[in-house]
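Usage

Read records sequentially. Each one opens with the input sequence:
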Amino acid sequence: MIQRLFSVFEPFVLSLLGTVLLATVLPARGGFATFMGHLAEAGIVLLFFLHGAKLSRDAIWQGLRNWPLHLAVLASTFLLFPAIGLGMVHLPGMDPAWASGILFLTLLPSTVQSSIAFTAIARGNVAAAICSASFSNLLGIVLTPALVALVMQGAGGAGGGSGVSLASIEGILLQLLAPFVLGHLLRPWIGDFVGRHKSLVTTVDRGSILLVVYTAFGAAVVEGLWSRVSPGDLGRLMLLCLLLLGVVLAATYLIARIMRLSPEDAIVLQFCGSKKSLASGVPMAGVLFPAAQVGVILLPVMLFHQIQLIACAMLARHYGERAPAEEASERA
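and closes with the structure output:
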């Protein structure tokens, strides 16, 4: 059990924690902060450009065939999660800053890599997981900012006053949507190159996240982040993230039973429908919110990211180990 827990702490997670530590000890200031901010923006643009070039149109059309499953995943990601988030931010004693982070977390799209990986480990429908996770990320480029504008403004005090300004909308169009669309349009010419150099996408993906995390947390540290966050606050945030994940995992399990999905498709709903993407959340937060707010807003996202990896890794292994035994009993 201990070995399984430690196996989840991959090098990127350790890099993420190291970046937060670096931003705490040596935050970017003055002209260096401006330079790092521009570098992070360039990384975000390149990230979404490469993701657009990577997305196959064939995968989109093939995925449409299993539309009930994909609609269920999207409903979990963009309806169930926000509904739970709105309930959580009105809990007694909820700090408005943490409310903004929790709400933003619930509005993010699903992950791609870990959703597919856990589905494969659990012996689920991998092809459907690829389509569901891709659809979620594709729609999230538009839906997440729209939901931030609708939910976080409509939540009033729970949103901490964090709305989407005209400048944020321009940033979404120029830094997220435009490069994604451009990359997808250029896929016939650059798709093979991107496919052959998957490590390039991974490097840009993780590098841009680390850049945004460093600039965001550095700005928050300069504004006194850690003077406002106590160990008790972090403990309460972790409990809220555990509660959120537990409710969604249970809900997706029940929904799969009600829909009478096959075991393979039920696994897709549970793993794709319970994830939130750090890779999408970090650059989106950098575009949507003022620099001084981003660090606070990203704390719940980073905590939930690690919790979902640990919990879903253990759950996927359980499903994967159970499947051969069930197949053997059926043959007997």
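Summary fields computed downstream for this record:
- The first helix runs from residue 2 to 7.
- The CA atoms of residues 62 and 131 lie 8 Å apart.
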